[in-house]
Amino acid sequence: MKIGVLALQGAVREHLRHIELSGHEGLAIKRVEQLEEIDGLILPGGESTTLRRLMTLYGFDQALAESNMPIFGTCAGLIVLAKDIVGEEGYLSKLDVSVERNSFGRQVDSFESELTIKGVADDVEGVFIRAPHIADVYGDAEVLCEVEGKIVAVQQDQYLGVSFHPELTDDYRVTAYFIEEIVAKHQQATA
Ligand code: GLN
User: Fold this and answer.
1) Is 47 in the pocket of ligand 1 (CB under 6 A)?
2) Pocket flag, ligand 1, residue 103 (CB < 6 Å)
3) What's the CA-to-centroid distance between 147 and ligand 1, angstroms?
4) Which H helix or E strand runs over 52?
5) Assigned superfamily of 2-190
6) 67 is in an annotated binding site
7) Measured in angstroms, how far is the CA atom of residue 20 from the centroid of ligand 1?
8) What pLDDT is recorded for position 166?
9) Counting C-beta atoms within 10 Å of the first and last residue's C-beta, which end of the chain has fewer, N or C?
């Protein structure tokens, strides 16, 4: 399958590498027209305010609002996917969750944790960098993982959002899960 990584800001190369390690083809997406070439899209981490501004500037907000393409958001990408952001307005509103930014406290800017992720594995290394957490889950969103009592991974149909950065380790199982479980099943269902 061909999976795009939104390449306006953030950790793009690392995601492309995980897509390739999963045995699929990756494509850096810079223009909305390229969305037609891919089966699923990854929204990388970075800085969500900047990411949103650039997505609007290049028309990705509208293009993705009209699309039902599977999307995997990591960290800032999760914030962009959420219906509600504490203290701000939601953006793509694809995931029925409320996220709180930078919510693991200033004193722990970043940390790593071994995660049990439903459907993936019980030993996934999670790298958290000024990470958001999922404060509330509603509708059909399903919790896949919690750390320190905070929700850090959710899935709703063809949308997957995680607070951490799977692409910063060599463990590509979360990306493989997105492609092989979510994108593949979405294709079968819509074929
Ligand atoms: N703190 C960033 C934000 O709120 C997200 C950080 C990240 O993507 N690593 O946008």
Assistant:
1) yes
2) no
3) 17
4) helix 48-57
5) Class I glutamine amidotransferase (GATase) domain (3.40.50.880)
6) no
7) 25
8) 96
9) C
